[in-house]
Amino acid sequence: MVALVIAEHDNATLKGSTHHTVTAAAQCGGDVHVLVAGSNASAAVAAAAQIAGVTKVIVADAPYFADGLAENVAEQVLAIAGNYSHILAPATAYGKNILPRVAAKLDVAQISEITKVDSPDTFERPIYAGNAIATVQSGDKVKVITVRTTGFDAAAATGGSAATETVAAVADAGKSAFVGRELAKSDRPELTAAKIIVSGGRGMGSAENFHILEPLADKLGAAMGASRAAVDAGFVPNDWQVGQTGKIVAPALYIAVGISGAIQHLAGMKDSKTIVAINKDPEAPIFAVADYGIVGDLFEIVPQLVKELG
Known about the structure:
This protein has helices spanning 16-27, 42-49, 70-80, 93-106, 214-220, 228-232, 263-269, 298-308, and strands spanning 2-6, 31-38, 56-61, 86-90, 111-114, 116-119, 122-127, 132-137, 143-147, 163-166, 196-200, 223-226, 253-257, 274-279, 292-295. The chain is of the alpha/beta class and 310 residues long. The strands form 3 sheets. Strands 5-9-4-1-2-3-10 form a 7-stranded parallel sheet, with helices on both faces. Strands 12-11-13-14-15 form a 5-stranded parallel sheet. The protein has a 3-stranded antiparallel sheet with strand order 6-7-8, with no helix packed on it. Helix 3 (70-80) crosses helix 4 (93-106).
C-alpha cells in the first residue's frame, strides 16, 4: 500500500494542514508520497521532502498550477492515481474542492473528515454536528479521504529526507481561471493554527463591543474568533467564524465569551484542550463542555481578566 497526500501550499511554503494529513496517511499503512502541484514551487517541494515519514515527493510544475485551481490539480491527481491505495487531502477549502472531483472520476465513495484511522479500510468520522462518531469501512480499491486536521498530530516538519520525482504536468483543463484574491491581514495568529483563541458570541451585543476582547487576546497572543450568530449579526467578518459551517479548531486554550454554546458552534471547538466559558446564563450549554466556567457579566469579567494578566 502507498498513500498519496495532496499538499496544500502557496508555492513558497506548505500549509500546516499538510503535516496533519501526512500523519493520517502514515496510519493507513505503507509508504507516504506527497504531491506538490504548483508553479516554481521548489521551496514547497523542499519543505515536503523534510517531513518525517514522507518517502517520496511527486512534483508537477506548470504555470496553471500556481493558484491551486481545483480542476487542474484534480486532473494531475487522476493522472497518477493508479499508483496509490489511498489519496488524502486536508478537509480545508482546498482539499474539499479537489477530492470530490477525484472521487467522482474514479467512481468511488469519498470518505470525508476522518478523525481516526482504525485500519487501512476503516475510519472514524463525526456526524450529527459531532454528536456521534460513525465508523465507516470502504471496499473501494482506492480510498479517497479528506482529513479533519484537528484529529491528528502534525508530522514533524524536519527529520525526513524524501526523494523527489518530477512527473509530466497534465494539460490545463481550461475550465476556470484565477481572477483575484482578497487577503485579510492581521498581526494575530491564523485562526486554525492558533494555540490560544478568544471568541465572542451574540452576547457581545455589537461590533463595537468586540473591541473589549482585543486587550485579552493581545495579552495572551491569541487569535480572535466568533460564533455564527455574531457573524450573521454583522459584528465581525466571516473568516472569524468557528463552528460546523465555519472553521474547526482545537487550540490549547479556547475562551468563549458571550457564547451560549449552540451545537453547531460546539462542533467546531469542543476538541480544544482547555475551554473557558464566560456567560451570564448559568444554564448555557457551553458550560457542559467547558473546563472552567465563569457566570457573570462579560463586560465586568473580561476587563478584570486583563487586569489580572498584567
